[in-house]
Protein 1
Amino acid sequence: MTEITHRTASGVKFYQVGSLAVGNRLLPREQRAAQADPQRANTMISGHRACQGCGEVLGARYVLDAAMRATEGKLVVVNATGCLEVVSTPFPESAWRVPWLHSLFGNAPAVASGVAAALKAQGHEEIRVLGQAGDGGTVDIGMGVLSGMCERNDDVLFVCYDNEAYMNTGVQRSGATPAAARTATTPVAPGHPGNRFGQGKDVPAIAMAHRIPYVATASVADLRDLEAKVERAMQFTGARYLHVLVPCPLGWAAPSSQTIRLARLATQCGLFPLFEAEHGELVSVTPIRQQVPVDEYLRAQGRFAHLFADQAAGGRPDLVARIQAEADRNIRVYGLGGQP
Amino acid sequence: MAATELSPHRGAAPEPAGRAVEGSRAVAETVARCRPQVVPAYPISPQTHIVEALSALTRTGELESCQFVNVESEFGAMSLCIGASAAGSRTYTATSSQGLLFMSEALFNAAGLGLPIVLTVANRAVGAPINIWNDQSDSFSQRDSGWIQLYARDNQDACDLHPLAFRLAEELSVPVMVCMDGFVLTHAVERIAVPEQRIVDAFLPPYAPRQVLDPGAPLSIGAMVGPEAFTEVRFIAHGRMQQALVRFPELAQRYGKLVGRPAVELARGYRLEGARTVFVALGSVLGTLEDVVDEARADGMPVGAVELTCFRPFPAERLRTLLAGAENVVVIERAFSTGAAGIVTPELIAALAEPPAVSARSFTVIAGLGGRPITKKALRMLVHDAVAGRVARFSFLGLDRDLLARAGYGRASDDPPGSTAERLLSRLRAPESPR
Amino acid sequence: MSAHPFATTLDPGSSRANHTGAWRVERPVYAHGLPPCAAACPAGEAVRDWLYTAEDGSYETAWRRLMRDNPLPAVMGRVCYHPCETACNRGQLDQVVGINAVERFLGDEAIRRGWTVPRGAEPTGRRVLVVGSGPAGLSAAYQLALRGHAVTVREAAAKLGGMLRYGIPRYRLPREVLDAEIARIAALGVRFETQSCVDDLDAALREGGFDAAFLGVGAQAGKNAYVPAGDSAHVLDALTVLAAAEDRWPLRLGRRVAIYGGGNTAMDAARTARRLGATDAVVVYRRTRERMPAHESELEEALAEGVSVRWLSTIAHADRGLIAVERMELDESGFPQPTGRFETLEADTLVLALGQSADLGWLAGAAGVGVGDGVIDVDADLATGRPGVYAGGDAVAGPERTATGAIGQGAAAARRIDRYLSAVAGEQRDVPRQQPSAETPVPFGRLNTWYYSDAPAMLRPQLDAARRVDTFAEVVQGLTEHNALYEARRCLSCGNCFGCDNCYGVCPDNAITKLGFDADGQPRYAIDLEYCKGCGLCAAECPAAAIEMVPEPARDEPADRTEHRDAALQDVGP
């Protein structure tokens, strides 16, 4: 059994914000976040048409800039259809500054595999391939080809930017939509408090079941953790999977300024555990730093508002308790409350 | 097996050199000599022998520097092709039937992105009912996918079309489908001359992509295009595909010289001199058809045949020229559009109607669905009926009316006068048939 | 026409043609909030600023920033009751930042390394008299000297420092520290005259040719409270005890000493008595611990040194060796009321520590300078009724008489005197101080404290209490450099950017540019309003509440937008 370690900010010289903030003027350059670098890649640049406060474009820039740093700029990106694609490349303008290919909604992992195969055939294995999709393109429609990519151990880092529903088409339920969330296809009605319980798909666990070299979860609220995981992922050859939580102000019905806070609350309440697995085995978890009840996370989002209306109007403390139990389970199973 | 009824000859072509080999194997060897760099593969009958052979050729090193990837679906296979092609590699795969339909979304995408992928379709019926045998419903269903479609009359043709397909695809940035009748060709062992490596190398230069995913010169490929430019994108794609009508004959001539065989044509006439009734067909039926035409000619009937090799782009001018003297044009189709009629016929009619109009009457005969053999006998009857003016505008060749009757869809003796199809249709329009 | 396929392939980064700034309804603005520490500092120190500077080890720069407001950091780093720390927002997170300890570290570092302050301004030829060399006088003299004025400080006592020397025992403030910081002021050209009592202001001004004066005479007369005492009772004033210890007069205290009072001076007197040989030092205080005016730390240190306290007690009568103590009870309003129950306390000496007042009789004849209620009358500008004569420190009424407040008043008066002298000379030479933009200190709730590392405060090492009672060696030790740096870095930088790059990092629209640091070492960023969509993430994720979202002003004509493209880059920074 591989020993599970805890990823923390240790090793960073104490300075007000340690490694919690993006930058730190006192750290040696190589220890700074890629995002703090004035010369960062800016893989995705201004002028894209994402909504205010979009977590997905932020997550994409975080991931890709880190990947660009890790690969010294030798990166090719394959993108599934979805918000990230639509907002970034409406003719005649592209926000990307990497070689970037968009094919279809459900085939990004396979297209990425094809790019990797071509680069291998050409003897250009130093150029690394990154596939990316939203949760719809990963968890649902792209699942088969993603599994194929993992099973073949193709040399691709596939990144899922999970905003927990089909946002591009107007907030419909996906296989990643959490229980009790209101979406356009899980509307709140008497006897129907949003999305059903007990559904949804744990894709990181599915990826782990393929015993691929590296699987990790990350969030836009934990930049250094995210960047470290991208760096780590790039140290492996073969199939790698990174699942990044990216709140969506529109779909989650929250102010645009709350995107990062919501991602933070998601990890700090235990609903979204941050971990790493190598060759199918859990090797590290990022412990909860300031635990909060799920209540605090849920209340901040309009998609869960029906859980907190007064009882007469259908407020559901029982469902909040079930969600809390889910968080508690994560904390127990992943050891998120453990000491570093 | 129907293959025994097929002529291995292309009209007046000389006996091919080469060796006795299965069609699929010969195609695989030819493809290997085209030096593809990425071959994703997914099994489906009757295509499997092609990718099996390519897998072996890759493992033995006969096909060098090629990534043969066993994928999880045809959708995945075509998607890998898209990625590999966009990354600048020559890319190939093969499929059939349901597999082609499972690829469909990616087919349109590959074409829209202008990726010069070459795909062999071992033509097979599309279910339900599930049926593994040959017809051409699968590739015809992808008529509008933006791919060039070439139909092989025999296995020599199937081989020779592949170097041409790669060359054409890469020149025009349009993907090409090479269609060969499943089992009839893929599993037939015949004498086939697989083009030699030096000839293919001389004909087919290394792939020089017009754009590539290059970290040194990043591009965004696959943009979203709205109403402001979508029509123009399609207009340009149409123009590019139309160039194949010019380039295909030129390339085929060159290739034909290199291999010492007559050039493949967009569409080719057979005994058209003085032919008043001309039969138009695609694929493996041509051999038998030409034999029947020879017989009919010997009997003094003014008949001829046209082999349509290139269905997309549609060689309207070429067909007008070939059919200029015809009074009756009978199109033998191995697929049909349920609820309408033939798929090739309406396009042919439209082509002939271009001024100066060719005033031939047209007939559609649906034949060989789901692997039903198109026998010489059936074709002979068709020729006689056509010359005698007994062919309906739309009919099914060899429709088993007894079978229908046993199934409760009317008895043969009850059939009203008229063509088989019309009789059937009138029967079907009646209230629910007794079982 | 580009070489690549039309429309489906696009050039990299071409989205910059799309100016998403037009979506904005709110825009972020970099703010300079008032940190609670600075708001609370009676000396007006820009605490956040010098902590920020110290954080990267630029101690000398930090010290110089500190020295703009306070010439005695090594002294104040020891004796200040640090209201800055009381106000510090970090206290609501874990423990307050040890600002005072860092100040002391910087002050000590300056002494150790011999850092000096250059004479800034050209000599003005103006002469200013400062009466008293306590913290108010020293502060005023320093600020006036920096502005080029010729300053003479007249001190009645034998040594400089006023209450810093005679009211604060050396175990709290070693004299070499005080001397060093005064010497640095002297090095600016300030002339100090000791044993030079001013008893006639008019004469002093006239004879010295002074253009202005600052009166910082302090409050050094022990307040008399009537304590019935027998002839043989040995009663001393607390300041006398402290002064005797300072100047090493022989003083007979005896073995048992009672100290009457509950202020810091009472604590100092008790602790000094212990050091002078008393085995028992008992503080008699009429109310409870909660209501004691002495600072908690002073009491704690006294108790640790063996001082005891009799709460709810007044002294009814003192006689040779014996003191009668009456027990008190607090009434409903918290005021102590006699109970009629008496106890006896053995005490060889009774030390009265009941507060001090200013001795202002000498001002009776000074024209225009009013005195009332035991303090000099001044207006809000610290001006007396006489033009050019200002006063500050304990000699004027104030909310709390502390050395820190005295330094603030001395500096404030110096600025007014400078302005007065300029006005007289027909010049405008007062340089306005940099003022924080907000009046209300940044509240804790506006900070995004997630980003601050968990970091408990360093405790200043203390001498072993058992060992220190028989020595006047300094009780509280300074921080090591490592600890001082750590402590400085605990600062939350409330309301002010400290260059964490969060805004730069979290902007989904890459609308923020890093511009590095300005000449003062402060971080600079620019917001590109061509692309900022006004999502507010930068403001929400700013740890220090240094970004505010403000409503978007009415939009200019689109044509102006490109015209003023450079102006759209909102350059920011302190």
Protein 2
Amino acid sequence: MGTFELTDKATLENLEIVNAFLEEHLGEAGCPFKDQMQIVVVAEEIYVNIAHYAYFPETGMFTLKLEIREDPCEAELTFIDSGMPFNPLEMEDPDITLPAEERDVGGLGILMMKKMMDSISYENTDGHNILKVIKKFRKASLDGWF
Amino acid sequence: MLNIEKFSNGSELTMALTGRLDTTTSPDLERDLRDSIDGITELTIDMGGLDYISSAGLRVLLSAQKIMNKQGAMKVVNVNAVIMQIFNVTGFSQILDIQ
């Protein structure tokens, strides 16, 4: 179904570009709204983390590769940056059973990624953080939603 | 993009959200809440027009919930399936009053 690539500066302002890139190609591939939104939320969590921390206090570049496959339908997103090595899969999950007063939101983005994607892998190769997530989906029916 | 509409009736306040509650827009809701929440005992967040919420939005909801736990009650209404799943996987469905 296609491979697409986006490379730009990893700034918070460019989050909109990341979202638009994903929604354009996922929409064209017939990815249902619910799956699209799950992918976009997880992509935001990964991207914002790169924009905030990877090159801190400097700014650097990121690449997002999107591969959409058919039979079964799935979207594979690969985020690549050359910043500080960071493996999100090594982070401990936050305690999500605590009452509001004792809650912190740290780590929730990574938790969402783990629970809402079908597969996640991380590697650091030649100074690049390479984080790959895969989400399976069923093609949208004619109404374009579920 | 996030649009916030406010309806108040004495100490009751409803904030109706349309769009996305993400890293870019969450500061808008945080600011609006901070300016409006004084003296409110019943806060309703209407998510009928909201597509999704990221962890930045969860952070704002959590701080609003903590404030309302002290001064009254807060409920979240009209939550779509995407947002409900996010509340479930993050445990927010346990700390928010979702109706």
